[in-house]
Amino acid sequence: MQTAFVVIWVGLFVGSLIAYQVASPAFKRAAYVPFIVVVGILFAGFVTLLDGTRNVAFVVIVVAVITVINAVTVRFCPECGTYNHRPFSRPQYCTKCGAALDGDGGTRKDDGDLRHP
Ligand SMILES: [Zn+2]
To answer: Is this prediction's pTM over 0.85?
Structure first.
């Protein structure tokens, strides 16, 4: 079981690195939340298989909270596809190119509002 865990985890890691390099911004935006939900389910499943069901409620709650936080605080730029993450809020502008992440066409450079320190 540990071998399967390592193989699947390395596969997911390498696959996501490749996808990050080659996928379109639209694909990244569409696929991110389903991807992290699947990863969370796999992680909780592996922990339960390896550790038994005595901590399953705790594992599911922690994985669910982390998944929701990532779904809310990670956004991919519609222009350049860059991964943008802010720890406690939804990023509004791309850290690489300054494009608005909500897709309204405005940019950080245009309105002079530097929201990233
Ligand atoms: Zn960008």
So the answer is: no
